[in-house]
Amino acid sequence: MFSAGIGPTAWFLGAELAPAGVRARLQSLSVAAQYISCFLSPIVYYPLNSLVGPLSFLVFIVPLSLSAVYFYQTTKWKNRFEVRRTSVS
Fold it and tell me: Which positions, given as ranges, span the membrane (predicted)?
């Protein structure tokens, strides 16, 4: 299920949106952040699941949904060059 969700974002975000001068650095940072979050997710989830039960997924679903809505609104009807221009400035 990794490739069906948010997982591949770290691998293509830097390659698509970053200028050539910072592409390698952004790619390294995004993949490192992804690996750290993949490590911390079960550490947070399992104790939370014991306390809250099935609603413990909301800790992950709510921030992901809010960030998806935010990024959709900021990039709606823009091509990748316009997104790059607004993200760099």
Answer: 48-72
